[in-house]
Amino acid sequence: MNPIDPPIRFTLDGVVRGYVKTLPVAAGVAVFGLAYGLLAGQHGLSLTETGLMSALVFAGSSQMLALQLWDDPLPVAGIVLAAVIINFRYLIMTAALKPWLGPLGRVASYGSVFFTADENWAISIAEMRAGGRDAGFFAGSGLALWSFWLVSGLAGRLFGSALPAPERLGLDFIGTAVFTALAGRMWRGRRDLWPWLAAGVAALLSSIALPGAWYLLIGGLTGSLLGVWQDTRRATREGLSHGA
Fold first, then answer.
1. I need a surface site. Which of 21, 39, 106, 174 has the fewest CB within 10 A?
2. pTM of the model
3. Does the structure show a pLDDT above 60 at 7?
4. Residue-wise over 66-85: b if at least 16 C-beta within 10 A, else e?
5. CB 218 within 8 A of CB 78
6. How far is the C-alpha of 13 from the C-alpha of 242, rounded, in Å?
7. How far apart are CA 154 and CA 157, in angstroms?
8. Domain spans, the chain
9. pLDDT tens, 27-77?
10. Helix boundaries (H) for 98-173
C-alpha cells in the first residue's frame, strides 16, 4: 500500500453507496428470485421455508440445484456436497478482496463475505481498483442483492400458489430455464468448452444409470474437477514460462 493512501474504513456511508450503486443489478437478480420462489412452491416448500433458504443460503445456483435434488428422504449429504462444489470459487474470489477485508475486524469481514455473489464481487473489485478505501461498499452491494433476492423469492412463492397447475402455463420448465440462464452468465469462453462437455456427458450417462436427480451432482462434479485440472495445468505452464 502506498504510504500516502488513507486507511481502509468501514462506514455506513460506504454501505449505503454500495447498496445504491448495485440496485440496477439487484433488480435483474430479482427475476431469478421470482423463478426460485415459483419452483420452491412446486417442490412443496412453505413460505417460511422458502424465505429461510434465501436468507441463510443466499446462493441462487445452489438453491436451484437443491430443489432439483429435493426428494423424500432428503439427500442432505448430496445437497451439501453440491453446494460446496458450486460455491468453491468464492474462496478465490474473496481472496482478491483482501486489501479491503484484511484490515477489518472479524465481524465486519466475515459478515461482508456472507453476502458475496458474482455480481457484487465484480462491482466491488472495480470500486477497489479505482482507489476506493471504504470496505463498507462491499457489504452494501451484497445487502442490495440479498434483500432483492429474499423479497422476490417470497413474492414468487406467495403469488405462485395462486396460479393453476404449473404444466398448464409451461412453468414446469422454469428450473431448466433458470439453470440455462445462470450457466450462460458463467461462460468464460473456449476454455470452458471441455469441462462443460464432460459435465454434460457425465450427467447424461448417470441419468440413464442412476435413479433420481443424482445426475446433476455427478455432472457438476465431473465438470468442476476437469476445470480445476485445466486451470492448474495452465497456471503451471505460465509459471514455468515466466521462470524461464
1. 106
2. 0.71
3. yes
4. bbbbbeeeebeebbeebbeb
5. no
6. 43
7. 5
8. 12-186, 190-244
9. 888 888 888 898 898 888 999 999 999 999 998 888 888 887 777 777 788
10. 98-101, 106-114, 118-129, 136-160, 166-169
